[in-house]
Please model this.
Amino acid sequence: MRKRRITWFNPPYTKNISSNIGKTFFDLLNSCFPPNHKLHKIINKNTVKLSYSCTPNIKQIISSHNKRIINETSKKVSTTKLCNCRTNYLAPFKENV
Model:
């Protein structure tokens, strides 16, 4: 059995658009690539599939990146130790003492 070559169209989902993007896209495919077009064999309703992409918005991407950066820097600061002593009174003394 041969594998079909499928091309995916992933428009980002948004609530602001009231029109049916899928129907508009397939109508555009039918008008630009009619059955007598030489590329209709490759680009038609059967070889191009529609899948809505649920990507996060830019605010979520930036905030998650900032959280990751802040967590990495806070881990670096908290993991640095001055000594490896088991008791507190053996900690290194100040230079003035």
About this structure: Residues 7-80 form one domain. Helices lie at 21-32, 58-79. The chain has one domain: 7-80.
